[in-house]
UniProtKB/TrEMBL annotation:
Classification of source organism: Bacteria, Pseudomonadati, Pseudomonadota, Gammaproteobacteria, Alteromonadales
Cited PROSITE patterns: AIPM_HOMOCIT_SYNTH_1 (PS00815), AIPM_HOMOCIT_SYNTH_2 (PS00816), PYR_CT (PS50991)
Chain intervals for the UniProt region annotation (Regulatory domain): 394-517
Enzyme class: transferase
Cofactors: Mn(2+)
NCBIfam families xref list: leuA_bact, PRK00915.1-1, PRK00915.1-3
Protein name per the record: 2-isopropylmalate synthase
Source organism per UniProt: Pseudoalteromonas marina
Enzyme nomenclature, EC number: 2.3.3.13
Catalytic activity of the protein: 3-methyl-2-oxobutanoate + acetyl-CoA + H2O = (2S)-2-isopropylmalate + CoA + H(+)
Quaternary structure and partners: Homodimer.
Length: 517
């Protein structure tokens, strides 16, 4: 029996999402992502446009052979050679779908296709019939449905269903419509296409006005039962409806919407990170569900609330979308409760410090550097003040050399405890060589967790800003450096890390002494 409250999730990350990338995905990238997407338990995954290039044909073919679970779908224009290529590429799939489309809006018909609606309808019908020779599962889309008169849509959709399409998709291709208009369009088709009960109604929304998710939800409320979407919302121009957002809306607001999906929400974060990395499309920090800040609390009142009851400021748990834990960032907007909580987690009791004076130092440091880390908190307890001026390690000079034909080398001069010392080393590049020289000078080696280089300023005169997270003895340390030369910026950031490690060691010694005494 059909579950009338289930909304099918049709993932098009590897088709519409891929269209928007600066560099196409390789066959291996696509296979890796296809496995990840199938772990989300999507119902359908559209994985390419087989006629578009031999490489896309091959990757659709490989995914059809290797990835089990969801229906594997390919896109084709209403053109015989596209449909034949699609049918052939999908031949080995356990379950396959051919998705064919033609534009229906007056604007696209007149200026792009240069044909009448009747001609487009005839092409669609012919293509759907051809596609049915390859599979029983054929989807038909009216491209730019959002700008197509409703009665025109009714005409072509009725014929598409008669020709054998079992899914009818009504895309808002250019992200133009508003939620109420889109819902009205869905209702119009449901009420006026005589054979509409023979097809599943699908929606495919673009985000040009930031309405892709809202429009998809409105369409579901009006009766649509498939949403086409992409992980992280990637796709043409401003992107597509975001999979993680609609999936969580349906999960969190089931009480109101009365529908559900089969998405395994715990897989969302992993999938998002992998798409961002492989597609080289970073996720904005404040992005709903998967952004770095989606479960981070930075202000004292919120942090206090979350510590008392998580749901005061979290409508879903981080674990429900696969994020390991929430984050309480310590900034100058934080209050005493979160500091006390963090110190308790680090094993301190109230008697170990004086909160009023600690809070004063905390605010001064937070105003100066933004985020305060665990090692800063501990240093505030054990050292009267944190003074960057008398740091153990100071940079004297960087002298690096690199060219495209030989290994890079670097000599670093540093003042260590008042004495100038220098060391040289080689590496794959000047930054690696410089880090190796610093390691020799300090006698300590760190594990690099993150290295980030950004240009600040404009054009060729911009400065290089380097942010590093490096681990020593199991604890992460954060260093930043800025300079006109990116190697020098990297060296400054790394020296900052070594100074923090030194300070943490001093704190640890004082801790031992206090314990012993
Ligand atoms: C809304 C969307 O996202 S649609 C999907 C968009 N994705 C892509 O375009 C990626 C894959 N595309 C491609 O690789 C190429 O565009 C191809 C292989 C499909 C076609 O390449 P070309 O033959 O060189 O044509 P080109 O892309 O320049 O122009 C598109 C042609 O298809 C026609 N066309 C566009 N949509 C359709 C359609 N649904 N059905 C039939 N013909 C169509 C256009 O009118 C134009 O025809 P013309 O050459 O007679 O003017
Ligand atoms: C091919 C169709 C479904 C599309 O991507 C669109 O109209 O945006
Ligand atoms: Mg699209």
């Amino acid at each position: 029996m059909q579950d009338k409250d289930k909304v099918w999730i049709f993932d098009t990350t590897l088709r519409d999402g891929e269209q928007a990338l600066k560099a196409s995905l390789t066959e291996d990238d696509k296979i890796q992502l296809a496995h990840t997407i199938s772990r989300l338990n999507v119902d359908v995954m559209e994985v390419g446009f087989p006629v578009s290039s031999p490489a896309d044909f091959r990757s659709v073919q490989r995914i059809a052979t290797e990835v089990k679970g969801p229906i594997i779908c390919g896109l084709a224009r209403s053109v015989a050679k596209d449909i034949e290529a699609c049918g052939e590429a999908l031949r080995t799939a356990q379950q396959s779908r051919i998705h064919t489309f033609i534009a229906t809006s007056p604007l696209h018909l007149e200026h792009k296709l240069r044909m009448s609606l009747d001609d487009a309808t005839a092409m669609a019908v012919k293509s759907i019939k051809l596609a049915r020779n390859y599979t029983d599962d054929v989807e038909f889309s009216c491209e730019d449905a959002g700008r197509t008169p409703h009665w025109d849509l009714c005409k072509i959709v009725e014929q598409a269903i008669n020709a054998g399409a079992s899914t009818i998709n009504l895309p808002d291709t250019v992200g133009f419509v508003t939620p109420d208009e889109y819902a009205a369009m869905i209702r119009h088709l449901m009420n006026n296409v005589p054979n509409i009960d023979k097809a599943r109604l699908s929606v495919h929304c673009h985000n040009d006005l930031g309405l892709a998710v809202a429009n998809s939800v409105a369409a579901v409320q009006a009766g649509a039962r498939q949403i086409e979407c992409t992980i992280n919302g990637i796709g043409e121009r401003a992107g597509n409806c975001s999979l993680e957002e609609v999936a969580m809306i349906m999960k969190m607001r089931k009480d109101h919407l009365k529908v559900h999906t089969d998405i395994k929400s715990e897989e969302i974060y992993r999938a998002s990170r992998q798409v961002a990395k492989i597609c080289n499309m970073p996720v904005q920090p404040n992005k709903a569900i998967v952004g770095e800040n989606a479960f981070a609390h930075s202000s004292g009142i919120h942090q206090d609330g979350v510590l008392k009851a998580q749901n005061t400021y979290e409508i879903m748990s981080p674990e429900s979308v696969g994020v390991p834990n929430n984050q309480l960032n310590m900034t100058s907007r934080s209050g005493r409760h979160v500091i006390e909580h963090r110190l308790e987690e680090l094993g301190y009791q109230k008697a170990d410090y004086d909160m009023d004076s600690l809070y004063e130092s905390f605010l001064a440091l937070a105003d100066q550097k933004g985020t305060v880390y665990d090692y800063d908190l501990e240093a505030m307890i054990y050292l009267n003040q944190i003074n960057d001026k008398d740091e153990k390690y100071q940079l004297e000079f960087v002298n690096s050399a690199s060219n495209s034909q030989s290994v890079a080398s670097s000599t670093i001069g540093m003042v260590i405890d008042g004495e100038v010392k220098q060391e040289a080393a080689t590496g794959n590049g000047p930054v690696e060589a410089s880090f190796a020289a610093i390691e020799r000078l300090t006698g300590m080696s760190v594990e690099m967790i993150e290295y980030n280089l950004e240009a600040t300023g404009q054009g060729a005169s911009s400065l290089g800003q380097v942010n590093i997270i490096a681990k020593y003895d199991g604890r992460p340390y954060h260093g930043a450096g800025i300079a006109a030369d990116v190697v020098e910026a990297s060296v400054r950031a790394m020296i900052r890390v070594y100074n923090l490690i030194y300070r943490a060691q001093k704190v640890s010694d004082l801790k031992q002494q206090r314990k012993a005494g």
